[in-house]
Amino acid sequence: MSVALGTTRPLPVRTTPVGDPGDLLASLPKTAPFAWIRHGEGLVGWGEAARVEVPPGPRRFAWAREWLAEVLGDAHIDDAVKTPGSGPVAFGTFTFDENAPGSTLIVPRTILARRDGRAWLTTVGEPRLQPFTPIRTPGRIRYSDGSLTAPEWEHIVARASRRIRAGELEKVVLARDLLATAERPIDIRLLLARLSRRYPECYTFSVAGLVGATPELLVRRTGKHIESLVLAGTTPRGTSAADDVARGAALFASEKDRHEHECAIASVRQTLAPLCSSLHTPDEPELLVLPNVQHLASHVTGRLADGASVLDVVAAMHPTAAVGGTPTGTAIEVIRELEGMNRAGYAGPVGWIDAHGDGEWGIALRSAVVEGRRARLFAGGGIMGNSDPASELAEAQAKFRVMQYALEG
Ligand SMILES: C=C(O[C@@H]1C=C(C(=O)O)C=C[C@H]1O)C(=O)O
Fold it and tell me: What spacing in Å lies between the alpha carbon of 3 and ligand 1's midpoint?
């Protein structure tokens, strides 16, 4: 296990309460930041006290947990706040496909956080002054096709639908990528500021170059309590208030979308039930209205039977049918075969875990991998036997708009 600490061992960690820090994102001193923010609350971090690339394979979540236990095992933790997210925290991103490399865990040197009116600062290792670099805009953005053109993608949607109708599987989520090139290097802080302002309801995140604003909470663990927000079934926003309401009502009444949502709920129920002493899934979904799309949404809650950490729960849940399909194994094979691309961290778990195993992990949707002047954007949707390729393409375009707005303003 490689640990690039560059700090004294045992690792000194100190958390102290601080006054209201104002806009957390405005505190980030330079690009390559860590962030997990919703409605202005959450955690931001910078610097790296420890970082590891998690080896691909079926044991990757367990491996990550063991690595973290080793790094934090002999740390001297002085935590005056004692709440989920205080003390040392690791941010992480896991690739969608367990066989793909690129899953990463990082313990930032500095973490600034706020929740429920309390704010705190954590330092890991010897404090280092980080000079603040000014944020520049990336200039004009040019787009080009990723692995498939729009018509090619519509074609694979039609092929997937046919295979579903033939009974090979029930649902598969297909995605595509879009390449963006900017005139100047892209400062992730600017993207985060735009995303959190426009999508306050979503989790605005940044970990190891993966940036986005996802509405989908895979799991939050607070002690024994867990919760998840399951999304599946989508319609673009309307052109007027009346059109919006009509589209929302049509989504709610759509057999195709309700079935798609049922698949997602069933997969979450099936994976969480063995871990929980109690589990509640609502009978009917609600409507989640975002600036670009409307989703069918179900808020799931449960109580863990034993001391599973948030990463153990993530390991059990990923990939849900909201981003993989039903049945999972067949859907993953169909995704590998038809998409013809590496999803990287897109649709994989992204979030944070603390030394007690509490944390919040989202599904990395409405996101992009950002490096230098380039960004690779991802979007997709659930395909059923009666999916219309043109509507699925329109849905994916609507989902791309999140990161296009982050890049262009
Ligand atoms: C696959 C994406 O979103 C997922 C698919 C949805 C759908 O098909 O209705 C809805 C929300 C997400 O679970 C994406 O945003 O790229």
Answer: 35
Q: Is the minimum distance from the CB of 403 to ligand 1 under 6 angstroms?
A: no
Tell me if 38 CB under 6 Å of ligand 1. no
DSSP assignment string, 23-83? -GGGG--SSS-EEEEETTEEEEEES-SEEEEPPPSTTHHHHHHHHHHHHHHT-EEEESS-S
Q: Which helix (H) or strand (E) holds 374?
A: strand 374-383
The pLDDT profile of the chain, 409 residues, written as one tens digit per residue, is 445 444 557 889 999 999 999 999 999 998 889 999 999 999 999 999 999 999 999 999 999 999 999 999 889 999 999 999 999 999 999 999 999 999 999 999 999 999 999 999 999 998 778 889 999 999 999 999 999 999 999 999 999 999 999 999 999 999 999 999 999 999 999 999 999 999 999 999 999 999 999 999 999 999 999 999 999 999 999 999 999 999 999 999 999 999 999 999 999 999 999 999 999 999 999 999 999 999 999 999 999 999 899 999 999 999 999 999 999 999 999 999 999 999 999 999 999 999 999 999 999 999 999 999 999 999 999 999 999 999 999 999 999 999 999 999 9
ipTM reported for the complex surpasses 0.90: yes
Q: How far is the CA of 241 from the centre of ligand 1 (A)?
A: 23
* Residues 242, 270 contacting (CB under 8 angstroms): no
Per CATH, the number for 12-128+143-408 is 3.60.120.10
Structure token digits, residue 45: 């971090």
Note the pTM of the prediction, 2 decimals. Answer: 0.97
Taking the CA of residue 257 as reference, the ligand 1 atom at the shortest distance is 9
Pocket of ligand 1, candidates 170, 234, 346, 401: which has the most ligand atoms within 8 Å of its Cβ, to mutate? 234
Phi, psi of 5 (to 5 degrees): -80, -50
Neighbours of 68 (CB within 10 A): 24
Q: Indicate whether residue 234 lines ligand 1 (CB < 6 A).
A: yes
Mutate to test the pocket of ligand 1, among 295, 298, 367, 402 (most ligand atoms within 8 A of CB): 295
Quote the ligand 1 centre to 188 CA distance (angstroms).
23
Q: C-alpha angle 160/261/302, rounded to 5°?
A: 135
- Name the nearest CA neighbour of 149 among 405, 398, 389, 406: 389
